[in-house]
Design a protein that fits this description.
Layout: E1 6-10, H1 14-24, H2 37-41, E2 45-47, E3 51-55, H3 62-73, E4 76-77, H4 85-91, E5 96-99, E6 105-108, E7 131-134, H5 135-167, H6 181-192, H7 197-204, H8 214-225, E8 231-235, H9 243-259, E9 263-267, H10 271-274, E10 280-283, E11 291-292, H11 298-309
Parallel strand pairs: 3-9, 3-10, 4-7, 7-8, 8-9
Antiparallel strand pairs: 1-2, 1-5, 5-6, 10-11
Helix pairs in contact: 5-7, 5-8
Length: 315
């Protein structure tokens, strides 16, 4: 059954941002991220469905929205996010409504100029397993696996060299004490006696971590992190995914929202994710940020017209 943990989210108005500037005696120029971004677009309140998508091009603010929500709800994240003091202020004064699992609604308003950081308890309607997952998290996991495999390869080469020196070249280490590097070297040589190189390497080092393509690794990452019954914020999850993997991910998210009690808030411009059935889509590229059908979005129309104009090549 579909679940809604985050019912709506209210962003700062231009007046609230102005109060902060006045209180801090700042002129609040445009580069004070994320000030001025959403009042300029006319975005004030967002209402969520089991799957809600923020669509827009680079610099549209879709990733910023997810980071603001993630910080305000204090959900789990893989890589620390440090955007600066203006972002911190922005996060600490937002109003919101929550629909909890039992259907009750909790509304809390925080003073726009409050710097109270003890916020996690106020969001008790959000499951503790909720998290934000970004494309950087996927890249970081891939790099970590590659780094660990490089270390395993290095250790394997070292053990192989020691096995060769002991079993082929006949080199030995004299044990002068029961402690220290000489003793450790003697123990390893003794453990290699009568064993093949492959068996010694297996016992001492083991195997490399199994890896697939970037797309396989990314897809497995999402499967590993999304276990159901929680709110998940996904920032451009299509990165590193081919078209076929994006289709698989869209189908997986649709099923998790429908049957596993998940709520998704997604920042994307992937037509495959935008086509998730029942998704509510906010168009950040349009004034006042309207809700649109996925077939009305400019990026999707570009794809459609490209293939339509070349349809005869597919016959």
């Amino acid at each position: 059954m579909a679940s809604i943990y985050l019912h709506d989210f209210t962003f700062r108005s231009d007046a609230e941002e102005g109060k902060f500037c006045q209180a801090e005696r700042r002129t609040c120029f445009e580069f004070y991220y994320p000030l001025k971004l959403f009042p300029r677009k006319g975005l004030r309140r967002v209402d969520f469905e089991p799957v809600t998508i923020f669509y827009g091009g680079n610099g549209s603010g879709k990733s910023t929205i997810l980071n603001i929500i993630a910080a305000r709800l204090n959900v789990l994240r893989e890589i620390p996010f440090k955007p600066g003091q203006f972002f911190d202020w922005y996060v600490k004064g937002i109003t919101r409504d929550i629909i909890e699992k039992d259907g009750s609604v909790t509304h809390i308003h925080v003073d726009p100029l409050s710097f109270n950081s003890a916020l996690s308890e106020e969001w008790k309607g959000i499951p503790a397993e909720s998290r934000i997952l970004t494309s950087e998290d996927v890249f970081d996991k891939t790099l970590n696996i590659r780094g660990r495999n490089r270390e395993i390869d290095r250790q394997r080469d070292m053990v192989a060299q020691k096995w060769w020196a002991y079993n082929v070249e006949g080199k030995h280490t004299n044990m002068t004490s029961m402690h220290g590097p000489e003793y450790e070297a003697w123990k390893m040589q003794h453990s290699m006696k009568g064993k093949s190189m492959s068996k010694v390497i297996k016992e001492e080092v083991g195997f490399n971590i199994k890896t697939g393509s970037n797309g396989e690794n990314a897809f497995e990452f999402f499967l590993e992190k999304m276990q159901g019954n929680a709110l998940y914020l996904l920032d451009e999850p299509e990165n590193s995914l081919s078209a076929s993997w994006q289709v698989k991910l869209a189908s997986y998210l649709e099923g998790m929202a429908r049957f596993e009690g998940c709520q998704f808030v997604i920042a994307t411009h992937s037509p495959f994710l935008l086509g998730i059935r029942g998704a509510k889509i906010y168009d950040l590229d349009s004034p006042r940020v309207p809700v649109r059908k996925w077939t009305e979005l400019e990026n999707v129309r570009e794809y459609y017209e490209f293939f339509r104009d070349r349809n005869d090549e597919f016959c």
